[in-house]
Amino acid sequence: MKDTTESWAAMVAGGRLVKYAINLGELGPEQVQIRVESCGICHSDLSMIDNDWGMSAYPLIAGHEVVGVVEAAGEMVKGVKVGDRVGLGWFAGSCLSCQPCLSGKHQLCGSSEQTIVGRHGGFAERVWAHWSWAIPLPAALDVRKAGPLFCGGITVFAPIIDGGVKPTDRVGVIGIGGLGHLALQFLNKWGCHVTAFTSNAGKAEEAMKLGAHAVLDSRDTAAMKQATGSFDFILSTVNVPLDWSEYLNLLGPDGTLHFVGAVLEPVAVSAFALIGGRKKITGSPLGSPATVRKMLDFAARHGIAAQTEDFAMTDVNAALDHLRAGEARYRLVLHQE
Questions:
Q1: Which of 310, 314, 309 is nearest to 337 (CA)?
Q2: What number of CA atoms fall less than 13 Å from residue 93's CA on the CB side?
Q3: Burial (CB count within 10 angstroms: exposed 0-12, middle 13-18, buried 19+), residue 155
């Protein structure tokens, strides 16, 4: 096991990433060391690099959609072994003793260890994690495309499981990007009738190919009004404020508007928009290790994968510029050379 590893780090908020050597220290008894083969880039990486959420510490090594091989394991590691190919997402550890952990809701652990918060992430040669969050990769999944499933994929899959979405439901997805293009695939294969909401007419044809049965132009006031009361579940993947009352109007009785996109502005709605139809506004962070495994099995069974563009790890700044420009279609993946 190496004592140091090379990484790509932001030294200041919004700064260009530079090569940076990390002193790894001593591997914990329940930790694994993963040799990074590839790492997806999520918009959350940009938010952390730019300190949009006010919790970044520098040097900051982002990257939380890791695929790699376990090359060292502590003496108390279970479930994975040296040589296994695994994935690692936003979470790298949880206490395993609190009520959420004991209830199988590890992602809600108040002491969770987040892969790129206060520790180094996957824009590096190696990364560490607790064994429970290093999830074995099914052989049927494409190694070069699997990384985005560990953040983007589980972010949109977990609400299907945790929210009790049924195959008979009529569902909508707001935003056809890194999260939304995966949500369309999962919900289609789940059996739902799926509508894509987009303000970009150029994405309509692609949304249909990804699994949407219908596309609704969110700027078309008449079309939006005509759809009033026709949805059971609407998943918002965007990080910009919208007219949320308009989307609540689209829900039928007991319908849910669920947030996975990190909108920083308060969600302003009238209480009456919720009371009359017993409607709900909810949100969620990723999923538990058990749900991640379910997602991977489901993706392997149905051939679900992110649409990716590939960059060398050494070209990380070019990849980040591509994402900042809004040109990613739909997920970027860095590969070690």
A1: 314
A2: 19
A3: buried
Residue type, 77: V
DSSP string, 89-142: -SEEE--SSSHHHHTT-GGG-TTPEETTSSS--SSBSEEEEEGGGSEEPPTTS-
pLDDT band at residue 2, thresholds of 50, 70 and 90? low
Helices (H), the chain: 43-49, 99-102, 152-162, 180-190, 204-210, 221-226, 244-250, 271-275, 289-302, 316-324
Give me the domains of the chain, ranges plus CATH numbers. 4-151+304-335 (3.90.180.10), 153-283 (3.40.50.720)
What does the pLDDT look like over 76-102, one tens digit per residue?
Answer: 999 999 999 999 999 999 999 999 999
Tokens 């051939």 map to which residue? 303
**Taking the complete model, does pTM exceed 0.85, yes or no?**
yes
Are β-strands 85-88 and 135-136 bridged in parallel, bridged antiparallel, or unpaired? Answer: antiparallel
